[in-house]
Amino acid sequence: MKKLKGAVFGCGFWSQFQIGGWSELSDVEIVALYNRTLLKAQKMGEMFGIKYCYDDAEKLLRDHPEIDFVDIITDVETHPVFVELAAKYKKNVICQKPMAPSLELATKMVNICKENNVKYYVHENYRWQPQFRRIKQLIDNGIIGKPFRCISGFNTAFPLFETQPFLAQLEQFALTDQGSHQFDVLRFLFGEPLSLYCSTQQVNPSIKGEDVATTIIKMKSGVTCIQEISFSSLLEREVFPQTLMLVEGSNGSIRLDPDLILKITNKEGTVNESVPLDKYWWQTERLTNEPPSIVSCNRDILNDMLGKGKAETTGNDNFKTVTMVFASYESARRNQVIHFQDPA
Predict the structure, then answer these.
(1) What confidence tens digit (pLDDT) does each residue in 189-200 have?
(2) Which of 152, 170, 180, 305 would be 98's cystine partner, CB 3.0–4.6 Å?
(3) What angle do CA 296, 300, 301 make, to 5 degrees?
(4) What CATH number does residue 94 fall under?
């Protein structure tokens, strides 16, 4: 069976997790790395045994025609440039979320890949976290009846900007960084939105963008979602980077508590479940939820490229999440409900 060969563009903080995720799969090999600062690419190459490192992305592509795909893990402002470059060389494209800094550029990126007849995916891993897959399974099994409301919260005061300082410079922060994840999880669980209303706030004066967002989303399935994001919430217990959640249904509820404890309640009582997580040598002590979801997301994309299945997080699918993110900014700016006329 063919082993696909890939290149990674961007060797910053998150690349360790992404490349680590690829290293767990037998049908793929990352053969080359690009970073604008060559030393970073070389250090990442040493960590994962990747020989070829570049500070010129196009030279990498010229030197390695055997590459089947490019995984883009750079800052969002550069995503359109690198997607276009990879598509020009007829390589399948995987782009880190958020897809693009604007809806117009996201549209262009999807179209460029289509015009060049290459596959386009977005690495949206949150829906692949084991606790959300389990919640989806429980909902689909009818354990709590028909869902009618979901409250989800990503509320933290963790010093995120120490490891990812570029986030403090984003004029659009909380919704692009976490809304991309949170809205996608809600789409995965409950389907597409009918409307949303969003309010944003800037609590931390040392950053450029919003660090708090509260969004009410009405779904076509009949579920009302209340989604909270805050990077300025000092709480009695810091659970970063975990999302907490309550799903209420006609016959019961599912509550996701800290430490990935699920509390499943119906008329017969409450059952507690602890969601297990696989661990890997390349992960960090703090970020434990993401590594298994990265492996699963990468496997899903890889199977699509190999013709073994259909990927969940294609560019076309993630464009629906991107639409929700920028609709939220529009809602906050206008202080109005945004209605989705077409499937969003």
Answers:
(1) 999 999 999 999
(2) 180
(3) 120
(4) 3.40.50.720
